[in-house]
Amino acid sequence: MMLVTGANGQLGSELRNLLGASAVYIDRETLDISDEAAVRNYLKNNCFDCIINCAAYTAVDRAEDEPVQANAVNHLGSLWLAKYGKRIIHISTDYVFDGTSHVPYHEEDKTNPLSIYGKTKLAGEKAVLDYAETAVVLRTAWVYSPYGNNFVKNILRMGRTRESLRVVSDQIGSPTSAGDLAKSIIEILQQMKTGKKDVYHFTNEGVCSWYDLAVAVMDLAGLSTPVIPIESRDFPTKAVRPFYSVLSKRKIKTHYGLGIRHWREALGEVIKKINDKNH
Ligand SMILES: NC(=O)C1=CN([C@@H]2O[C@H](COP(=O)(O)OP(=O)(O)OC[C@H]3O[C@@H](n4cnc5c(N)ncnc54)[C@H](OP(=O)(O)O)[C@@H]3O)[C@@H](O)[C@H]2O)C=CC1
Ligand SMILES: Cc1cn([C@H]2C[C@H](O)[C@@H](COP(=O)(O)OP(=O)(O)O[C@H]3O[C@@H](C)C(=O)[C@@H](O)[C@H]3O)O2)c(=O)[nH]c1=O
Description:
By secondary structure, this protein is α/β, with parallel strands linked by helices. The chain has a single domain (2-278), classed as NAD(P)-binding Rossmann-like Domain (Rossmann fold, 3-Layer(aba) Sandwich). The chain has 10 helices and 12 strands. A 6-stranded parallel beta sheet has the order 2-1-3-4-5-10, sandwiched between helices. Strands 6-9 form a two-stranded parallel sheet. α4 runs parallel beside α5 (116-131) and α6 crosses α8. NADPH dihydro-nicotinamide-adenine-dinucleotide phosphate is lined by residues 5-6, 8-12, 27-28, 32-34, 54-58, 73, 77, 91, 93, 121, 140-143, 148.
């Protein structure tokens, strides 16, 4: 039996769709992962083959004002799960990199997070690798889905209500469907080797800017709201984001034999699901 934390979030919801009755799904109400005693007791009383840790503090800008809270979840929560759970798939982020590269980041490349969110996620990765007996740390990026809060849903909403949108075109990355990410996790689960601890990257194929992504969202949703490309300095945010955070997927494709589709194909499918849900 698997344990999925953060079960009501984007990735947790997609995992529930795929894993069904073969996992137990918990959110903060059942178990606050930042509470060491609660995690220890819960994992002492319930035995799981593997924990898939999708719980996280993901509000990137708010984390700048709440570093303690973000650290409690992203760093310490991950540590407790790894320490008391032993076998874990832990999700991390492209924001552990500073974005100064011009070629896709490999797993062993130097990290240098620019934001509190990125720093606390990096601390979580390290804790998982230190404390778990068996671990896969899976970094991903720019995740969206029909569930929860994400850039794609925000852009869709704004596209329907505003006359035009302004979106940064100087931050480059790879959008990732939470559903495709969930499928890659199932593949990893089936092949995980006891006693091994390793880091992998997974996103959908292809690269784009947030502006390109917003344009694609409008296009695929059949909306004609103009999207205006702007520079990051014209869209000030509390947290600094990397200008370039493309992740190389060579390792996960080689080790796990994954086939990964282009972000635009995945996006079309998700936008259709979001529209079907709204009608
Ligand atoms: N979203 C993205 O673009 C990206 C996400 N990631 C990583 O992928 C993983 C999944 O992200 P995603 O599904 O988008 O995240 P979501 O924000 O959609 O879901 C996270 C879930 O974690 C729960 N949670 C927060 N704090 C706690 C806590 N103390 N104890 C238990 N549960 C808690 C939240 O519950 P509540 O709603 O009650 O707060 C929420 O349901 C995370 O590790 C994230 O860092 C990586 C790259 C990109
Ligand atoms: C909504 C909006 C955002 N932006 C900019 C702000 C920012 O620089 C960029 C991305 O916007 P967001 O703040 O929605 O996305 P952000 O919260 O930074 O997304 C990140 O979330 C965390 C959890 C991750 O791990 C990352 O991989 C990444 O997905 O787009 C615009 O230019 N115009 C807009 O209308």
